Amino acid sequence: MSRTALRICPLCEATCGLTLTIEGTEVTGARGDRDDVFSKGFICPKGAAFGAVDADPDRLRTPLVRRDGVLREATWEEAFDAVAAGLRAVVERDGPDSVGIVLGNPNVHTMAGALYPPVLIAGLRTRSLFTASTVDQMPKHVSSGLLYGDANAIPVPDLDRTAHLLLIGANPLESNGSLCTAPDFPGRLKALKARGGTLTVVDPRRTRTARLADRHIAIRPGTDALLLAAIAHTLFEEDLADPGELTAHLQGLGELRDALRDFTPEAVAGACDVDAGTIRTLARELAAAPTAAVYGRIGSCTVPHGTLASWLVDVCTLLAGNLDRPGGALFPQAATDRTPRPAGPGHGFALGRWRSRVSGHPEAKGELPLSALAEEIDTVTDEGTPVRALIAVAANPVLSAPDGDRLDKALDSLEFMVSVDPYLNETSRHAHVVLPPPPPSQSPHHDFAFNTLAVRNQVRYTRPAVPLEPGRMAETEIMARLVLAATGLHGTDPAAVDDMVIGQTLGKAVTEAHSPVHGRDPRELAAQLTGVSGPERRLDMMLRLGPYGDGFGARPDGLTLDRLLAHPHGIDLGPLASRLPQPLKTVSGKVELLPEPIAGDLPRLREALRERPDGLVLVGRRHLRSNNSWMHNVPALTGGSNRCTLHIHPDDAERLGVRDGAPVRLKGAGGEVTAPAEVTDAVRPGVVSLPHGWGHDRPGTRLGHASGDPGVNVNQLLDGRALDPLSGNAVLNGVPVEVSPVAETISALT
Going by C-beta distance under 8 Å and a sequence separation of 6 or more, which residues neighbour residue 639? Predict the structure, then answer.
């Protein structure tokens, strides 16, 4: 007999509500939840394939432990015994920094990935932390940290009320949005146009989003910061800059104007390959629109000036009077945020508190560049001990980081490695222990990170749609046990991890004057928490302490877990609202427009005014039915447009003798790959495009479908040395490559 159950989709940042059809314990269908307060029934191909993702036969069902060089099935007890022995031996001999932690993108898509890695990092006290952020979004975190004093204070475009949207390096019709959580992003852009608004897309590719736009500007890759600097310059030069009521909360407006004097439209036009008149028009339209927002994403982050481009996105929005304003860009307020403190100076944001051992890369937000992981493992120096053990949680850096071949060899040299991963993939195949979490239908879901980036304030929670399969372990328990094993507390009841966090959080909250529980007994508060598990009790605590919470009785109508459970389709908390200066944590208590690290990097941007690539450059590509390397093992989500082909412009193809469909060789600083050519004018001349996340051809994996059509690893073309210096983010776009046709085999009979 079939039944239905609700589930928030964990397969991209849109966080759409799903209605699952379930036969016994199998998900047999998925459709959009029309009553979901946020997504209102929208669904994309990934969500529609939820059942296929959930039931992938290659998902691991039991732990694997390496014995005599071979990964073999083991019990959970055997697996965690091995984890504790392997990690603690390295920590006790060489110190905590000899244990690296790698966190992949899926961590922010699960409750366990949000709740437990911070506890693991704090408990282990290692500085060897690497995450997917430094191949994706770290420039935005750094620019926000420098501007606002908080690396997680990221303003998002108010899509539903804006009259003018300038998109740079973003393709939300394929990605569903990034650092901007918006179910039905395509519908929201169409609604913008329907109400008479304007959409401009800046991208070297004519993407699906660009085809929807009123204007598409095919910029030269990697020059986004120059274009934005010229827009900001024009706003100043033509007296169009007007931050409005925000002016009283700004520091450095005059200095900012002086710093941008050299970046005239005429000066940047050649480097960007964008006409100076077009740049001035962009600035004038931004200033003249009733409301406007600038939104830049991965294409503007994964370039040599990623932090400067991310900074200038907010600068241009601010100068046009649209930062922290309805219809512009606003700071969301998630239900699990801590109770807002009074506005005033904070501790600020610091870069480079420590550096990587080999190349001296500065940390950013507590992280070192993922590009540096291989050298931190395989290089011996006089400074410190190499990484000898690794904890990888939902991470596949062999495909997602530059120079996977080197990292492949480095991982093989580790003394010990543990992976929390549902698959035996290109990275987890090196592990000594693999701990597989259950499929998403068997896990609860609340979006901690994405609600802090949502275009509307709301809160939703779904319990597991299917009971935990016998022999499985909940991902939250896996992570709690991993924390205990790594920190010398193996054998302790895993509930102790949640109890510790609850005790510490409430103990701090009762000392804060602005907290609704100031002066109360934390033990009495803990006794009030509801929920059927430690993670639910933590969620209840966060909701109650949050900006909409009941404050443990201080606000009787406020949020609690019980109230949220009574609203299975979620609770709408209203449109985004102006919040400045309250979110600011800078030392000055103001928006610091020209912080020293930014000013110090501007000379490098001035040098870029003279740069003109004389060969082909490479950019990435997103597919609607994919998310990094996650889903290439699901037949329903591969094929069609989701293929690993090299897009090349007809003019370049003719010049190089490349035929459509024929194999071509790409060579970069890190190596070379061969892929089929797809000749198309969707890319501008001088640019080629290859998608990210492919390369499933390494031995020792269990990815039956993906290995049948493996594609090639685009990041193998990179050697990992090209980084944005402020954020440590890998330069993945606008990199020089050589392209040549592969000589066809001539029959020996001719």
Answer: none
- CB half-sphere exposure, 116, CA atoms < 13 A: 30
Q: State phi, psi for 658 to the nearest 5 degrees.
A: -95, 130
Give helix 276-288 / helix 224-237 axis angle, nearest 10°: 60
E strand residue ranges, 290-366: 293-296, 329-330
* Separation of first and last alpha carbons in the chain: 65
Query: Whose CA is closest to 143, among 179, 187, 101?
Result: 179
- Calpha distance 65→594 (Å, rounded): 52
**How far apart, in whole angstroms, are the C-alpha atoms of residue 691 and residue 534?**
40
Chain-centroid distance of CA 238 in Å reads: 37
Average pLDDT over residues 633-654: 93
Q: What is the DSSP letter of 557?
A: T
CB 31 within 8 A of CB 19: yes
Angle at Cα 349 formed by Cα 343 and Cα 350, nearest 5°? Answer: 160
- Rounded Cα distance between 631 and 639, Å, is 12
Alpha helices in 218-372, H assignment, sequence order: 224-237, 253-259, 265-272, 276-288, 298-301, 306-319
What residues have CB less than 8 Å from 348, skipping those under 6 apart?
Answer: 149, 585, 586, 587
* Range list of β-strands (E), 24-150: 26-32, 64-67, 70-73, 99-103, 129-131
**pLDDT, tens digit, for every residue of 28-85?**
999 999 999 999 999 999 999 999 999 999 999 999 999 999 999 999 999 999 999 9
**Per-residue tokens: 306:** 């990623």
| Helix 76-94 × helix 475-486 angle, to 10° | 30
pLDDT tens digit sequence for 662-673 = 999 999 999 999
**Helix ranges (DSSP H) in 584-688:** 596-608, 650-656
